[in-house]
Every structure is written in C-alpha cells, then in structure tokens.
Amino acid sequence: MGNYASCTLSGPVSKSFIRGTKVIFPSGEVRRIYQPTKAAELMLEMPGFFLAEAKCLQIGKRLAALAADEDLEIGGVYVFFPMKRLNSAVTAGDMGALFMAASSAAKRVSRVLPESGGDVEVGRSGGKCAATGKLNLDEIEEFSTPEFKQRLSMCRSKKPLLETIVEEPVCLR
C-alpha cells in the first residue's frame, strides 16, 4: 500500500471567517473584526473596560473577563463591561442591553442610507439617536410602565421568617 494524495480542493471558506468576530462596545456600537485579534488590543481602545464572551453570559452567573493574551475566536461575539462589574452577576438588564444592541445592529445592516447622511442613524421613532448611544430602559415604553415596575418588585426573592416552631407535647394527643 502506498501514500495517496487527494486531488480535491479543500472545502469552501467557513462562514464564521466570512462573518468575522463581533465586538459590542459600551456605546452600543457593534464592530466586526476579520483578522485574528488579541483581547488586549481591543481593551487598549477602551481603558476601564473588560471583554466577556457573549455565549458565556447567563443571568445570575458571574461575569468572567477574558485574559488579555487570549485570542478572540472568529465567529464569536464579545461584549465590553466596566471594570467595576468584574465578577458581579449578570442581570436581566445586561442581557436586555445586549439584545437591544444586537437587534439595532441587525437593523443597521439592512438599512440603506443616502451618501450625504451616512453618519446619521434614524431610530424606530423616526428621530435621530443620541451621540452616546447608551441604552436607558426608562426611555422604552414597555419598561417604564408602573405595571412592569410592580412586577419587578414582586419578583424579588422573599426572605423566610426565622421564627421558632412551637410544637405540642406528644402526651397531650
């Protein structure tokens, strides 16, 4: 038996390479990176923030920062968080902000703007978005209603009363 070299070409370039790595910045900007990048390169752009991998984010679990020398996976999604949030639990607000940034980025990709207004973004309400681009849940109608705030207060964990239990003596039964 001998060695056999196949004449077939390798498969098509993977879709994840074509998509690139997505990084969500604190301002809500979603940037695609197509070349291999270390986390430190991006963290130099945003001092005071750390990167976390989006697929590791679960409500109630702790935020884990990427090591500075770690390579970003092509096709992965990464999010910037402030350093003061390091090792704190992921909240529903964090996931909501992440969802809002992802959905607005998807809308921006499908939207075509004229050449003269390329740097102006038009929101759902028809007005121009703020320059900071930070998400404020109070500005969204669904989150500002008293009913929603009342539901949030009801969802908080209830603490049990730590009272002693008075039992009847066995002989009285």
Tell me about this structure.
With 173 residues, this protein is an alpha+beta fold. It has a domain at 15-111 and 130-153: Beta-grasp domain (Ubiquitin-like (UB roll)), CATH 3.10.20. It is 26% helix and 11% strand. The protein contains 5 helices and 4 strands. It has helices spanning 15-19, 39-45, 92-110, 141-144, 146-155, and strands at 21-24, 30-33, 49-53, 77-82. The protein has a 4-stranded mixed β-sheet with strand order 2-1-4-3. A hairpin with a 5-residue loop joins strand 1 (21-24) and strand 2 (30-33). It is elongated and about 85 Å long. Mean pLDDT is 70; it is low at 6-17 and 116-133. InterPro entries: PADRE_dom. Pfam families: PADRE.
Main beta sheet strand tally, sense and closure: 4 strands, mixed
Q: Work out the radius of gyration.
A: 25 Å
Provide the CATH superfamily of the domain at 15-111 and 130-153. Beta-grasp domain
In DSSP terms, counting alpha (H) and pi (I) runs of 4 or more, how many helices? 5
CATH class of the domain at 15-111 and 130-153: Alpha Beta
Shape: elongated
Strand order of the largest sheet: 2-1-4-3
Ends: how far apart? 90 Å
What helical percentage do the residues reach? 25-40%
What is the percentage of strand-forming residues?
5-15%
The secondary-structure element order is HEEHEEHHH
Class from helix and strand fractions: alpha+beta
